[in-house]
Design a protein that fits this description.
37% of the residues lie in helices and 24% in strands. By secondary structure, it is an alpha/beta fold. The protein has two domains: 2-105 and 298-311, ornithine cyclodeaminase, domain 1; 110-295, 3-Layer(aba) Sandwich (Rossmann fold), CATH 3.40.50.720. Helix 2 (15-29) packs across helix 11 and helix 3 packs across helix 4 (136-147). The radius of gyration is 18 Å and the shape is globular. It holds the Pfam family OCD_Mu_crystall. This is Ornithine cyclodeaminase. It comes from Rhodovibrio sodomensis.
Length: 313
């Protein structure tokens, strides 16, 4: 059985290739039952989360990711999310590889948002607002830049020093990134607004949004968390990665549906429908679109398979 290190996985998973791998798997290349979601008490401090995420391609590959999410980890100098994927032969069950979950998890999450943006953001989107400064933020920026002609990146975070640090990192990569102080002003000027936070209170308000924008929400992975207010989902055409996950775990959809501010049928399509051509995605340049992701095991499987097959080349 191979062991693929974080370095090997990072080298294998470039965003153009990974976005296309996810597009193909959402077109019907895998089965993925709902993930197991368990709260892990952690005193003192915020409770952790254990996620068990199986998926398989009949006769080809079978995989399961074991992931943990501990919100206090950045204060310890550790990433909030840590994981590994066990990849097996789908015909025999033989273990093939243990694939490092970092950066696989970050990259497949960012690639899913980029895939959604490929259907939902205006083709000429040039200005990206990155809300959040954690480990996911630079990956979200790189992924969005792989599918749209982003010419400027504004970075906002609760801690200005972290926003400055991330902007500097992105500039060192050749990207035109600047930290900003006003979140409202950043939202008003952006074509694509990407949020990667652990927020439990709305950050993005619907009254700030304007026609033509695309809002990408990948944080707030629990029903108790959210990054947008009710008005934001009311003014937008709403999409998600999977109905099974987002409508159960994504607070940005769960809370307004429970409050009666959003109807279930207002969530127009998931990535399955978009990739299979069952929904056109953005229907005009003056619409506001909003995408909510909570993650799906078939994304991990697609990324693990891509990394594994490239390691054999």
């Amino acid at each position: 059985m191979k062991v693929l290190s974080a370095e090997q996985v990072g080298q294998a998973l470039d965003y153009p290739s990974l976005v296309e791998a996810l597009r193909q798997v959402f077109r019907g290349g895998a089965e993925a039952p709902p993930r197991h979601h368990h709260e892990v008490p952690n005193h003192p401090g915020a409770d952790g989360t254990l996620l068990l995420m199986p998926a398989w391609q009949t006769g080809r590959y079978l995989g399961v990711k074991v992931a943990t999410v501990f919100p206090d980890n950045p204060g310890r100098g550790l990433p909030s999310v840590m994981a590994n994927v066990l990849l097996n032969d789908g015909a025999t069950g033989e273990p093939l590889a243990l694939v490092a979950g970092q950066p696989l998890t970050n990259k497949r999450t960012a690639a899913a948002s980029a895939l959604a943006a490929d259907y939902l953001a205006v083709k000429h989107a040039k200005r990206l607002l990155m809300v959040g400064t954690g480990a996911m933020a630079p990956e979200m920026v790189r992924a969005h830049c792989a599918v749209r002609p982003i010419a400027r990146i504004d970075v906002w975070g609760r801690t200005p020093d972290k926003a400055h640090k991330l902007a500097t990192q992105l500039r060192d990569e050749g990207l035109n990134a600047q930290p900003i102080e006003s979140l409202e002003a950043g939202v008003e000027q952006a074509d694509v607004i990407s949020c990667a936070t652990m927020s439990t209170e709305p950050l993005i308000h619907g009254t700030w949004l304007r026609p033509g924008q695309h809002v990408d929400l990948m944080g707030a992975f629990k029903p108790s968390m959210r990054e947008t207010d009710d008005r934001a989902v009311q003014v937008a055409d709403v999409f998600c990665d999977t109905f099974a996950g987002a409508l159960k775990e994504g607070g940005d959809l769960v809370q307004p549906i429970e409050a009666g501010a959003l109807a279930r049928e207002d969530v127009l399509a998931d990535l399955f429908a978009l990739a299979q051509g069952k929904h056109p995605g953005r229907t005009s340049d003056d619409r506001i679109t909003l995408f909510k992701s909570t993650g799906a095991a078939l994304e991990d499987l697609a990324a693990a398979v891509l990394a594994y097959e490239r390691s054999a080349d």
